[in-house]
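With this grant's support, we have settled on a layout for protein records. One resulting record is reproduced below.
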Amino acid sequence: MTALSDLIAQAHNFAAQDPERDSANELLAVIERAQAGDGAAADDLAERFADRLRFGTAGLRGRIEGGTNRMNRVVVMQAAWGLGQYIKAGGMGVDAAQGVVIAFDGRRLSRQFAEDTAAVLAAMGVPSHLFPEVAPTPVCAYAVRHLGAAAGVMVTASHNPPDDNGYKVYQATGGQIIAPHDTGISEWIEKAPAIGELPRVLPFDAAQAGLRHIVGDEVVAAYFDGVAAGCVHPGATAAHPMSLVYTAMHGVGHGPVERALRQAGVHGLAVVPSQTEPDGAFPTVAFPNPEEPGAMDRALELAAEVRAELILANDPDADRLAVGVPDGDGYRMLSGNDVGALLGHDAIAFADTQGKTKLAVTTIVSSSMLGRIAGDLGAAYAETLTGFKWLAHAGITRLAERDEHFVFGFEEALGYSVGPLVKDKDGVSAVVRLVELACWLKGQGRTLTDELDRLALTHGLSVGAQWSVRMPGQQGRAQIDKAMAALRQEAPAQLAGLDVVEWVDLADGSGWAASDAPRDLDLPSADVLTYYDAEGTRLVVRPSGTEPKIKFYLESVGWPKERSDIDGVRAEREQRLSAIRADIMGVLGL
């Protein structure tokens, strides 16, 4: 463990570099408390300087504070320098002169981080294509390919807590970086000079030198034209309009969603006024994630007031979509797996691919329903590691190798890609496709709930359960590692009374299967454990790549014969999953 005196010296050096006085002064206050014998402050310093922020499931993410293990201007400028050096060295395989697209959301310091990135890159001779105002993450991803850029940077922490921010990097394909790019950029970041020695170019000078370009509306308009071109039920929104409620969750989605829906022929959208404008303080929600308790309360209240037929919500950077539907006298929120099944079936059944084989992709922790739908309808199907960087990579690779046409990808955490337009999850185009589907079903006298029941009867009923245990700080990281190690050292022999018949450790590909034909999980190395019991129930355990959590995912499949059977089969499967959850938490002592 680093001595307190060394930590204090490191922290003083960092504070001296930080051009953001608020974060520098906040760090100095922590130093002062640690020097006075405050143990909590000393632990805080140890956590802030335990490491440098690393590229996780969705880039760099952390709390906005001073320290190498936090998000701040020092870390961002050194990350920009590392990215620039990697591009100039040919790591992306694209000429650095093609520049880097830079966009930002409405979180605290997002615009500053974007400007710092542009200034550092300009000093290295790497041009920037900078969005002039807040933008959704999917529009940034789209712009990388549209402009033929060498890379892209999106400053966002998506649905993380208000005090966080992040730094997502895209490669020239428009997908998020994966190996070897993440490690290659990180190696350059480790070599970054102190901020006082790191040149930056002012905006006016960069523009005069041709190293700063503002992304015009023609790029954004091309994105919306692409969203409109993905229509699979022409005329449905005009023929069968619906009453809709939408919330941007204090993020950047309102303007883009309104524009996309207008272009699709949808008018009269009711929005939650208090959550419409971007606000990094997120004043009406404790946690700006549609999945969190209380986050949807205002949207639900408005829906009841206007008798909405559908509730739609984006997270703060508009790359995710949450959906609410009428349920008795109120509303219920659909799960990400529910929406994935709805949109996935719609794309596989109706998207026009000019005769090419359709490809649907999801992750190993998402519902297996998409795989059954794809198999039953004759489409290609693939599973990837968690994170849309892997989904995009799988789609791009298979398109090149097998000439398949990517029509849909999703992850259970409310992320969807409804076609090849954006190589990342896209909450804006997903809104349009979901509304279009709902209107088309309305024309047949059916609802989204009716369609989910039909899919369950045709392709099987997937019942899932997901939970996580938050373990912040270095101590929490140690607890997470201990839990994963315990499961590796002695794999569970049973899940709530039924034998485990197969398990796989993706860290090294090891595992065991009772049958002679184990599942083929041909995936990159990852800290993920997967177990199957004798009736096919699946348990996946992994640490989060974006937050200090250990996450658990369960899925069991039932086969109702009649619509009247669905609730009973679901309840029986849910009871089974509850027993497994209690069992595994007891084993781990969590």
Observations:
- The chain has a mean pLDDT of 94.
- The domain at 461-588 is CATH 3.30.310.50 (TATA-Binding Protein).
- The longest helix spans residues 566-588.
- The longest strand covers residues 461-470.
